[in-house]
Write a structure and sequence with these properties.
Layout (H helix, E strand, L loop, with lengths): L2 H20 L5 H17 L9 H37 L5 H17 L4 H10 L4 H8 L3 H17 L5
Helix pairs in contact: 1-2, 1-3, 2-3, 5-7, 6-7
Amino acid sequence: MERVEFDEVFRTYYKPLYFFARQFLTDSDECHDIVQNAFEEVLGNLVSIQRTTVRQYLYISVRNACIDFIRHQGAHQTYIDFVKAMNDVYYNPDDALFLREREQQIEEVLARLPQPTRDIFIACYVDRKRYKEVASKMNVSVTVVKNHIMKALKMIRGLNLKI
């Protein structure tokens, strides 16, 4: 097939192929994209495609692309459903109030801790620093850091939190 014939084929079959794709898909833009891709394939293979078979080639190409799109959408929706299900395990909107109350209790406990116990506890448990690093920064021994941590944990346990 030659370039002149391609232009004629394009004008003849573009609209019918678009409406053919619309039988499969509801997304107008996706239908246009699929039909354009089919014509790009034909344009790229002008030498090997015969004029007598181009119509069948285009319709088969559009049909297969629509089916692939539908499959992809199904897989995509399955993935979305999976992610939602996994996140529901970790976050339930009904638990939001409970989580906020828990945060408030923890903030109150931290506010009750005396200095430097509060700073050491926050550095180790909130900022995730090693005892040695905290000791070096505060110019105290690791044993002092451990003692403050034990003091803080004892105070926290004694408060009988609802967490």
